[in-house]
Write a structure and sequence with these properties.
The complex is a heterodimer of chains A (273) and B (220). Chain A is 38% helix and 23% strand. With 273 residues, chain A is α/β, with parallel strands linked by helices. Chain A has one domain: 3-Layer(aba) Sandwich (Rossmann fold), CATH 3.40.50. A 6-stranded mixed beta sheet of chain A has the order 6-7-8-3-9-10, sandwiched between helices. In chain A, strands 2-1-4-5 form a 4-stranded antiparallel beta sheet, with helices on one face. The longest helix of chain A has 17 residues, at 182-198. Chain A is globular and about 50 Å long. The relative contact order of chain A is 0.15. Chain B is mostly helical. Chain B has one domain (7-219): MetI-like fold (Orthogonal Bundle), CATH 1.10.3720. Chain B has helices at 13-47, 50-64, 68-83, 89-115, 118-126, 131-161, 173-184, 187-216. In chain B, helix 1 packs across helix 4 (89-115), helix 3 (68-83) packs across helix 4 (89-115) and helix 6 runs antiparallel to helix 8 (187-216). Chain B is flat. The model of chain B has no long low-confidence stretch (mean pLDDT 92). Classes of the chains: A alpha/beta (273), B mainly alpha (220). At the A-B interface, helix 2, strand 6 and helix 3 of A face helix 5 and helix 6 of B. Bound molecules: adenosine-5'-triphosphate and magnesium ion (MG). Adenosine-5'-triphosphate binds at residues 17, 20, 22, 40, 42-48 of chain A.
Chain lengths: 273, 220
């Protein structure tokens, strides 16, 4: 892979559920070490886009590339095989809103399941890896605890450790703090922040705007199945231009965002004439 | 007032043990065969090809919606004529009881598998596991926890249902009861004893089921 080639890229992705056209041609390239955050209204297609990136959902048209894994969809393209999908997913970590931990396994077993069963790592080596990762997310003492005995924040940190155990090239996070009590949100965000600082390539869907502004290399705004805006934190969150984006962001702030500066000037200019 | 005389049964106890042995034999073998049928049919109905769904459904409903006694007699008298082979009573009983149990177990398996959250499949796929491995390592262990109570009550029913084999003169516990009654003229003592033997075998099983259910529920 050349240095310039993105770690993950999607090209002109289309996804429909029956008659409902959810993704209407989305293209995005994510470079190694980048943190791209996706924001947007409910139903705009953020989760669908993320789930197309590890092919939990199969798009009807477009292309996906992650490292050496390449998939093309559309007329004349073969349906990806089960084993090709499994190989892709080894290299793409995903953390879910509702954790989806394996309830019949301890925290440590949750983390070692992938390395042992998928990467054929020895049990001893995987336990070492698993304990290391649990320590990294601050749960060294919970290795032998079952998920039912963990708090939401702890569950989500185990889920992050489980995904990291596969040594993925890129991590996908879909609203991973949305199901948590407010006081547990920060402990999970801190883990993600730490991963960002280590240079992990990540794509996150989140409604935590302050966090997004803090960790993102770039921010994308999904609107009605289209990546309507993609740019720096400055461009997308601090000084948005797109009226729909402004309307969306205003719901997260008491003080209206983007009502100063150019947008404000444009509006007042039009009104005063 | 009836004068009970259980001592009159003394010479026949060996027949009762023999009958219990046959009852347990049919229970164990047809539960195992039924589990195998049920597992395969249950999996095929949840994850198998679409064309398999209709015939499997027909099998399940046929055996669930007709009396076992009718199935047993049909397999013993009608099936041999249709397929042109002789069938021993023992074989007919084994086939009918296994297919009957299989139909019920299939529905229990299917229910258990479908009760496992979709997110579990997704979590398995997200770490690169193949379908068969997710099923074996993630879904089935959780499905079995859900299934245990239904599985045990169906197995208890199966043991009781084996008493129907006496109709085609297979020497189970109930059949031996009729034999002993004919010899001793003591039907009250005989059938009371038979009932107690069934109870003594089955009651501990229900206790085990309760404990198992509580233990398995601990991690949920
Ligand atoms: N499996 C599915 N079958 C049918 N429709 C679906 C399915 N998954 C998503 N959709 C629909 O696709 C649209 C986009 O859903 P998606 O989950 O991607 O939105 P989102 O941007 O993640 O929203 P939210 O912020 O609420 O999570 C919605 O209208 C949703 O109802
Ligand atoms: Mg979503």
């Amino acid at each position: 892979m050349s240095a310039a080639e993105p770690t993950l890229s999607v090209t002109d992705l289309h996804k429909s559920y029956g008659a409902l056209h959810v993704l209407k041609g989305v293209s995005l390239g994510v470079a190694r070490g980048e943190v791209v955050t996706l924001i947007g209204a409910s139903g705009s297609g953020k989760s669908t886009l993320l789930r197309c990136m590890n092919l939990l959902e199969l798009p009807q048209a477009g292309a996906l590339q992650v490292g050496r894994h390449r998939f093309a969809f559309g007329k004349g393209e073969a349906h990806p095989r089960d084993d090709e999908l499994a190989l892709l997913r080894r290299d793409v970590g995903m953390v879910f809103q509702h954790f989806n931990l394996f309830p019949h396994m301890t925290a440590l077993q949750n983390v070692t399941e992938g390395p042992i069963q998928v990467r054929n790592m020895s049990k001893r080596e995987s336990i070492e890896l698993g304990r290391g990762l649990l320590a990294k997310v601050g749960l060294a003492d919970k290795a032998d605890t079952f998920p039912a005995k963990l708090s939401g924040g702890q569950k989500q940190r185990v889920a992050i450790a489980r995904a990291l155990a596969m040594k993925p090239d890129v991590m996908l996070f879909d609203e991973v703090t949305s199901a948590l009590d407010p006081e547990l949100v920060q402990e999970v965000l801190n883990v993600i922040r730490e991963l960002a600082a280590e240079g992990m390539t990540m794509i996150l869907v989140t409604h935590e705007m302050a966090f997004a502004a803090d960790v993102s290399s770039r921010v994308g705004f999904m609107n009605d199945g289209i990546l309507a805006e993609l740019g720096s934190v400055e461009e997308v969150i601090r000084k948005p231009q797109n009226p729909r984006l402004i309307a969306f962001l205003n719901r997260f702030h008491r003080q209206p965002v983007g009502m100063r500066g150019s947008v404000d000037a444009g509006h007042s200019g039009a009104a005063s004439d | 007032m009836y004068a009970w005389d259980f001592a009159a049964l003394k010479p026949y106890w060996s027949l009762i043990w023999q009958g219990l042995g046959v009852t347990l034999f049919y229970t164990v073998t047809t539960v195992l065969a039924g589990l195998l049928i049920g597992l395969i049919v249950g999996i095929l109905r949840t994850a198998g090809p679409r064309w398999a769904s209709m015939p499997l459904r027909a099998y399940i409903e046929t055996f669930r919606c007709t009396p076992l006694l009718v199935q047993l007699i049909w397999v013993y008298y009608a099936l041999p004529v249709l397929i042109g082979v002789d069938m021993s009573a023992a074989m007919a009983c084994f086939i009918a009881l296994s297919l009957y149990a299989g139909a019920f177990y299939a529905e229990i398996f299917r229910g258990g598998i479908e009760a496992v959250d979709r997110g579990q499949w997704e979590a398995g796929r997200a770490i690169g596991m193949r379908r068969s491995k997710i099923f074996r390592r993630i879904v089935l262990p959780q499905a079995i926890q859900v299934m245990i109570p239904a599985f045990i009550s169906q197995t208890i029913l199966q043991l009781k249902n084996t008493s129907l084999v006496s109709v085609v003169a297979v020497g189970d516990l109930l059949y031996q009861g009729t034999v002993i009654t004919a010899a001793s003229y003591r039907p009250l003592e005989v059938y009371t004893t038979i009932a107690v033997v069934y109870f003594v075998v089955l009651f501990p099983l229900t206790l085990v089921a309760d404990r198992l259910e509580r233990r398995l529920g601990a991690h949920r």
